[in-house]
Amino acid sequence: MRNPPVIALLPLPNFTLSSFSLFTDVLRLAADEGDRSRPIRHRWTVIGTSLRPVRASNGIEVAPWEALGDPARFDYIVVCGGLLRRRHDQDDEIEEWLRRADAAGVKILGLCTGVFTLAQAGLLRDCKICVSWYHVHEFHEEFPDAHVVATELFVVDGDRVTSAGGRGAADMAAWIIEQHAGSTVARKALDILLVGPSQKGDLLQPRPPVADGVNNEAVRRAILLMEERKDRHLPVPVLARAVGLSRRQLERLFVEETGKGPAAFAAHMRLQYADWLMATTSKPMTEIAFECGYADVAHFSRSYKAGFGVNPSAARQSGHGYIPEERRPYSTTSVGVPFL
């Protein structure tokens, strides 16, 4: 790896400007003494399939400084995503270029939904992948065999680094700086941006609404693990070990925080997700049942009727669901509120 290292940022159409800006500003502020922004400790550039401006999701355009070219001239490539989208004309070219970068030994980073592009290029096989809570279901849908983590800010797995975006973009940039210039330099950049000290990648992502009202950290993490794995049954002892508690401790804390034991809470969550899928997709009941962790449609139907008082087919035919107005799996009934 060169000294100083060279970092390329590749913004995709409709990229998230805040994540892109946080990442580049951390690089800028850490690159020199006295806030002079000279690229001394490391260098960075913005690349694209052409020099035509790339439009961010908020409408602001950023012009690449140079075209893709030889990826081996970089030490890190950061793929900056944003709005989930259908494929664009340049996607094949970008994915092939990223595969060339991988063959050249370049570290490749996925920022925000840039992880989707890395996965489409086949660069995340057998990797632990960080995805935002707000896209984890879409990612599972497109890449069902992926090892997805939605409880951490960013994940380093060999030459792959993936981030949920937002604040995680600053921390991922700080991680690069720490590798080459030390933690003091990285901390200086974060302090100037007023985002606080560098966070470790395994710090819990800000909780989605499914964990609203839960104050105990272990219970929050357990709920997020349930949310992450709604398509399978997580035995309570396994869940307890994952958050560092005994089964009895976890069950007691769950009841104190939510009014339900962990098994009942997980069942509640799966049913609400199934209801959301019924109301917002045309997926067959069999697919919905399996996606929500039910052994078969009969099991799903019995559980749904027990929870909502009507069988799922009748609910779908009536066009009437029990999900909240936002119709998102993250906007489930608040913790501690009765199910119906």
Distance between the termini: 58 Å
Rg value: 22 Å
CATH class of the largest domain: Alpha Beta
Fraction of residues in helices? Answer: 40-55%
Query: Which strand-content bin applies to the residues?
Result: 5-15%
For the secondary structure, the number of strands is 11
Instruction: Quote the average pLDDT.
Output: 84
Discrete helix count: 13
What oligomeric state do the depicted chains represent? single chain
Briefly note the CATH topology name of the largest domain.
Rossmann fold
How would you summarize the topology of this molecule?
Layout: E1 6-11, H1 17-30, E2 43-48, E3 54-55, E4 61-62, E5 66-67, E6 76-80, H2 91-103, E7 107-111, H3 114-120, E8 128-130, H4 136-142, E9 147-149, E10 154-157, E11 160-163, H5 167-181, H6 183-192, H7 217-228, H8 236-242, H9 247-258, H10 262-280, H11 285-291, H12 297-308, H13 312-318
Parallel strand pairs: 1-2, 1-6, 2-5, 6-7, 7-11, 8-9
Antiparallel strand pairs: 3-4, 10-11
Q: What this model shows, in words?
A:
By secondary structure, this protein is of the alpha/beta class. The chain folds into two domains: 187 residues, Class I glutamine amidotransferase (GATase) domain (Rossmann fold, 3-Layer(aba) Sandwich); 133 residues, Arc Repressor Mutant, subunit A (Orthogonal Bundle). It is 42% helix and 12% strand. It has 13 helices and eleven strands. It has a seven-stranded mixed β-sheet with strand order 5-2-1-6-7-11-10, with helices on both faces. Strand 10 and strand 11 form a beta hairpin. Helix 1 crosses helix 6, helix 5 packs antiparallel against helix 6 and helix 7 crosses helix 10.
